[in-house]
Amino acid sequence: MLKKIGFALLLAVAAVAGFWFSLSLRADFSTLDGKQYSWQSLKDQIVVVNYFAEWCAPCLKEVPELNKFAQFAQQNDGVSIFAVNFDNLSDQELSKLRDKYSMEFAMVSGLPKNAPFAMPKSLPATFIIGSDGTLIKQLNGEQTDAQLQNIVLTLQKLQAL
């Protein structure tokens, strides 16, 4: 009898653990290339999220700098960059915009869910999310590759301590 109760308890614990694990794997956003992400899956990384719009001149002016930073991120494990269109364009419209302005970084399809930050009130806005999944900093206005790299490298040094 005790073995049956123990086995039933073990099954119940496994079911609850499986349920929570499946919740943690649900996508909070996907990119135009079809990859799905959850904020949980990006822990242990420094994540840069840039909000932009085509009508925002400073947003378009910073695209070359974000492209440079995207190259830096690709060469450095633990660093990711995503761009979110403030106007929530369709994937087709967003693809045209990406091509028109030669945006070389991951573009979020739609608006992300469960983000560790609120929708910005002005553009451009860039959010730095630490490797623990919390918002480290919100940057308003145009950013440069050098500024973003400096922030990321500083965070990485602090993590190494």
Can you say what the CATH homologous superfamily is? Glutaredoxin
Distance between the termini: 52 Å
Shape: globular
CATH architecture: 3-Layer(aba) Sandwich
Indicate the low-confidence ranges by residue numbers. Answer: 15-24
SS element count, helices = 5
Count structural domains.
Answer: 1
Structural class: alpha/beta
Organism: Aliiglaciecola litoralis
Pfam family, one: AhpC-TSA
InterPro entries: AhpC/TSA, Thioredoxin-like_sf, Thioredoxin_CS, Thioredoxin_domain, Thioredoxin_ResA/DsbE_sf
Protein name: TlpA disulfide reductase family protein
Structure description:
The chain is an alpha/beta fold and 161 residues long. The protein has one domain (28-160): 3-Layer(aba) Sandwich (Glutaredoxin). The chain has five helices and seven strands. The protein has a seven-stranded mixed beta sheet, covered by helices on one side. Helix 3 (63-75) runs parallel beside helix 5. The longest helix is centred in the first third of the chain and has 23 residues, at 2-24. The protein starts with a helix and ends with a helix. Residues 15-24 have low confidence and may be disordered. This is TlpA disulfide reductase family protein. Residues 14-157 form the Thioredoxin domain. InterPro entries: AhpC/TSA, Thioredoxin-like_sf, Thioredoxin_CS, Thioredoxin_domain, Thioredoxin_ResA/DsbE_sf. Pfam families: AhpC-TSA. Keywords: Redox-active center.
Characterize this entry briefly.
It holds the Pfam family AhpC-TSA. This protein is α/β, with parallel strands linked by helices.
